[in-house]
Amino acid sequence: MKKDSVKTIWLGQSGFLFENKGERLLIDPFFSDIVEQKQGLKRLMQAPMPIEKLDPSVIFITHNHLDHFDPITLPEIHAFYPTIPIIGPESVMKKANEMGFTPSVLKHIEKGKTIEIGNFKITATAAYHSDPFSVGCLIEVGDKTMYYSGDTLLTETLLDDILSLKNRPIDIVFIVINGRLGNMNVKEAIKLTSQLNPKLAIPMHYGMFAENTENPSIFINGCEERSIKSIELKLGKETEL
């Protein structure tokens, strides 16, 4: 393993587990069937690992929607790891408090603000979504800067919102491509990625529900046409970035 590489596991939808030097950042884990229970959409991907093997050092939840703040999965993770910090915007903090999470582990973050925990420096970025408190983030870890879009539309200001917060060039982009329910579509995702000009681009938020997905090959091919390397991560498989 390279000194500053980031081991990355895609957990499905927009869920990721990032590891650097033994510390792990868990983002938006969605493992349950709560969306089917509440909205009738059947998940097509099973949870890729048992909760007890996640072993996070810090958890980041971008907004209060069922496939991001999973009200079945997150309490189970909290029960296994009761002292692990949970970072999120106001809507996430409100829901977590209502559900009885340990108050001392809850870390509120606002757009434009930064929290450093262990190897991870996390700066909340603007996201334009139906939860008005939604955020994405810039993650600085080792020698890499990663942009994680969260759920967001592509607006006239989003690019400037991101660029105004970055301290160094963006190496890796993780970006939504599904084009439904308040998210940018695949062509818009290609456009924003091209403007950010990362070394690597990874699509997300597809393949979980038949009613809300997109073909990641369209994104990958579009990036490669613009000389940006792009790959599709395999569910549950560790990839060194």
Mean of all residue-level pLDDT scores: 97
The largest pleated sheet is described as:
7 strands, mixed
- Provide the number of structural domains: 1
* Overall strand count: 14
Protein topology:
Layout lengths: L6 E6 L2 E6 L2 E5 L6 H6 L18 E3 L12 H8 L5 E3 L1 H9 L7 E3 L5 E4 L2 E7 L8 E7 L2 E5 L9 H6 L8 E5 L9 H11 L3 E5 L11 H10 L3 E2 L7 E3 L1
Parallel strand pairs: 3-4, 4-5, 5-6, 10-11, 11-12, 12-13
Antiparallel strand pairs: 1-2, 1-14, 2-3, 7-8, 8-9, 9-10
Helix pairs in contact: 5-6
Q: How would you explain this protein's 3D organization?
A:
It is a single chain. The chain is of the alpha/beta class. It is 21% helix and 27% strand. The protein has helices at 34-39, 73-80, 90-98, 158-163, 186-196, 216-225, and strands at 7-12, 15-20, 23-27, 58-60, 86-88, 106-108, 114-117, 120-126, 135-141, 144-148, 172-176, 200-204, 229-230, 238-240. It has a seven-stranded mixed beta sheet with strand order 6-5-4-3-2-1-14, covered by helices on one side. It has a seven-stranded mixed beta sheet with strand order 7-8-9-10-11-12-13. The longest helix has 11 residues, at 186-196. It is globular, with a radius of gyration of 16 Å. The model has no long low-confidence stretch (mean pLDDT 97).
Concise overview:
By secondary structure, the protein is of the alpha/beta class.
Which descriptors would you attach to this protein?
241 residues; alpha/beta; seven-stranded mixed β-sheet; 6 helices
